[in-house]
Amino acid sequence: DGGITQSPKYLFRKEGQNVTLSCEQNLNHDAMYWYRQDPGQGLRLIYYSQIVNDFQKGDIAEGYSVSREKKESFPLTVTSAQKNPTAFYLCASSLQLAPQHFGDGTRLSIL
Amino acid sequence: GENVEQHPSTLSVQEGDSAVIKCTYSDSASNYFPWYKQELGKRPQLIIDIRSNVGEKKDQRIAVTLNKTAKHFSLHITETQPEDSAVYFCAASTITGGGNKLTFGTGTQLKVEL
């Protein structure tokens, strides 16, 4: 959806390095989400935030961190503790009681 | 937590035939069931959704049915076309006041052959 912007499109991480994936939305959505997608698999929830300054762990939060200081922004940091970070990362947002809409994703690879 | 199973993992149909994808869920509290279509390397796009107070919903060639008692829901695509070829994901969640935490199935690769 045009209102959810993820950057960069491609990202490379060196061993021991933290990297941050950006997600910005101009849809005035309250809730934002981060998913990880591995080849041939479904989407798995990493973190989600229902309101500014609050977020909850999803099913696979280990090795990741997030912040929600502004309504429109929900950056995801992939830390060096995440030993298998190569994946397609998708950010989504939604209004309350409404469907989630996704950004175009960031493909993270290891150098 | 919620667990969603999706079948089949791959589905090949002839153009013009119908395609059916089935999902089951485990949490009886789930009340929202969207379906997403994802083309290779692209974002998932919502194609249809259904809430638990409805048994069936239709949008042109696409329909979704929900059986709450059996905890399963299905996507039906009629008169398939080559552009329907993609990966389809079902999902389930309990919508709350602050948003909805989706649990996805593992996807179905649909191929529509000429």
Estimate the mean pLDDT confidence of chain B: 93
Overall spatial form of chain A? globular
User: Can you count the helices of chain A?
Assistant: 0
Ranges of chain B where pLDDT stays below 50 over 5 or more residues in a row are none
Structural class of chain B: mainly beta
Question: What is the general shape of chain B?
Answer: globular
Poorly predicted sequence stretches spanning 5 or more consecutive residues of chain A: none
Q: Summarize the helix and strand pattern of chain A as letters.
A: EEEEEEEEEEE
- Counting helices, strands and paired strands, the structural category of chain A is mainly beta
* Number of DSSP helical runs of chain B: 0
- Greatest chain-chain interface? A-B, 26 and 23 residues
Rg of chain B is 14 Å
**Mean of all residue-level pLDDT scores of chain A:** 92
- Percentage of residues in DSSP E strands of chain A: over 45%
**Span between N and C termini of chain A?**
30 Å
Number of strands of chain A: 11
Multimerization state = heterodimer
H/E element order of chain B: EEEEEEEEEEEEE
Rg of chain A, please?
13 Å
What's this, in brief?
The complex is a heterodimer of chains A (111) and B (114). Chain A is built from no helices and 11 strands. With 111 residues, chain A is mainly beta.
Key attributes of the depicted protein:
heterodimer; A: 111 residues; mainly beta; 7-stranded mixed sheet; 4-stranded antiparallel sheet; 11 strands; 50% strand; B: 114 residues; 6-stranded mixed sheet; 5-stranded antiparallel sheet; 13 strands; 0% helix; 57% strand; globular
Overview of this protein structure:
- The complex is a heterodimer of chains A (111) and B (114).
- Chain A is mostly beta strands.
- Chain A is 0% helix and 50% strand.
- Chain A is built from no helices and eleven strands.
- In chain A, the strands form two sheets. In chain A, strands 2, 4, 5, 6, 9, 10 and 11 form a seven-stranded mixed sheet that branches. In chain A, strands 1-3-8-7 form a four-stranded antiparallel sheet, with no helix packed on it.
- Chain A starts with a strand and ends with a strand.
- Chain B has 114 residues and is an all-beta fold.
